[in-house]
Amino acid sequence: MKNKDYIHRVPLFNDLSNEGKEYLKSLLHHKAFNKGDLIFSPNSQDELIIVVLGQMKVYKLNKDGKEHIIRIIGTGDYGGENYLFDLHNTTVYGIALTKTEVCILYKADFHKLLKIDHQVGQNLLKLNAKKSVELERQAQLLSFYRVDVRLVAYLEDLYNVAYNEEENSITLPMSLKNLASYLGTSAESLSRYFRDFEAKGWIERHHRKIIIKPAFWEEFK
Fold it and tell me: What SUPFAM superfamilies does the record point to (predicted)?
């Protein structure tokens, strides 16, 4: 896959001028990773990492070494933007959840691009505002003391943004293990709550596909 193909996958670069897009092609660095490979860490250079194929898990390690997921980044999304503006990464890591291809834009090259086309900076601000809302919502979920309440709120949120009307279902965007980390619990506990929800007739679960039953809304609306 050539660099020019990446640009069309990334909303951040949608409004670049033709001159900006041509210049961007010369700045991007392509890398491929296998599942489980470390993509970036606190020891990495300051860089914007754009996922063009696959998924990247972004997480922190707590003082006790426990992993806390910040977000899952899929095709067309990106991470590392804060480090383009003199913030330093001391705790955040990114690993490939599947076979993953990324484009890397180093800090110095990003600022060169800004001199050619300011639109990328404006797009970055807009997309970062959306990401901030998502992170705030995760913090709200984690503020709920009970894990089952967190799961209910998460399923409601996912239904509102990713409901597939044709299949009458929603699809979990991550594995059970990663979702458990995102919700601040263990995979065993989360699996138990899913089974409990099924037993109560609230949902049907088929691997990552979840069908929300009418009884769910009767209980929580």
Answer: cAMP-binding domain-like (SSF51206), Winged helix' DNA-binding domain (SSF46785)
Block mean pLDDT (10 aa), the chain, length 221:
59 75 85 94 89 89 79 84 80 91 90 79 69 72 84 90 80 86 87 93 90 87 70
| φ, ψ dihedrals at 40, nearest 5° | -150, 160
Distance (Å, rounded) from C-alpha 37 to C-alpha 8?
A: 25
- Calculate the CA 161 to chain-centre distance: 14
The CATH T-level fold of domain 145-220 is: Arc Repressor Mutant, subunit A (1.10.10)
Please report, for residues 21, 72, 140, the alpha-carbon distance to residue 57 in angstroms, rounded to integers and kept in the order given: 28, 5, 20
Domain ranges within the chain, ordered by starting residue: 3-141, 145-220
Q: Give me the half-sphere count of Cα atoms (radius 13 Å) on the Cβ side of residue 25.
A: 11
Residues 178 and 136 sit within 8 Å (Cβ to Cβ) = no
CA distances from 86 to 91, 194, 204 (A): 15, 42, 47
The per-residue pLDDT for 1 is 47
Concatenated DSSP letters for 21-32? HHHHHHH-EEEE
Asked: is 3-141 a CATH 3.40.190.170 domain? The reply is no
